[in-house]
């Protein structure tokens, strides 16, 4: 009797664990897609700000000025979420990071710390710390995606960089998720530098 009940409890807990992992994975996938779409929206708005007639660009300028006081917090949240997502994939899902994954992690893991310290210290020069890290991380993530879609690119290491652990929406792999995190973090600190006036 007790062995049947115990077995049912274990099966239920296993099912709940797998369901929770699937929910978290879907949430990460959706968040990365939203980060990518948001980044593209900001890029188009900025191009509109630069090239539209003055009347329309004034509205975009006002929009950027209104969100710029909160953009560092946004960059902190995006980079922290990307860091935790990376840890979820390696520590919970059991995906072994390849060499290119580790290079991306090196550049991503410091971003929430630097951004948080900049928020606390009200450091107006944070763009100069975050931008190089984000841009280098974007290039590594883009190269890694190239390795995944074209097996001919070089990646040395014990683990195969071309292996795709996760594919969502028909194009989004983990390097694309990292790229979207780096890009949105870069854009948010750029907005803070360009439009925030103390």
Overview of the molecule:
With 198 residues, this protein is mainly α. It has one domain. The chain contains seven helices and no strands. Helix 1 packs across helix 7 and helix 3 (71-92) packs antiparallel against helix 5. The longest helix has 50 residues, at 2-51.
**Overall pLDDT score:** 87
What is the terminal separation in angstroms?
A: 70 Å
Radius of gyration: 20 Å
The geometry reads as globular
Please indicate the percent range of residues in DSSP E strands (runs of 2 or more): under 5%
Percent helix range: over 70%
Number of helices: 7
Low-confidence stretches: none
The count of strands amounts to 0
Largest sheet: none
Order of helices and strands: HHHHHHH
Number of domains: 1
Q: What is the structural class? A: mainly alpha
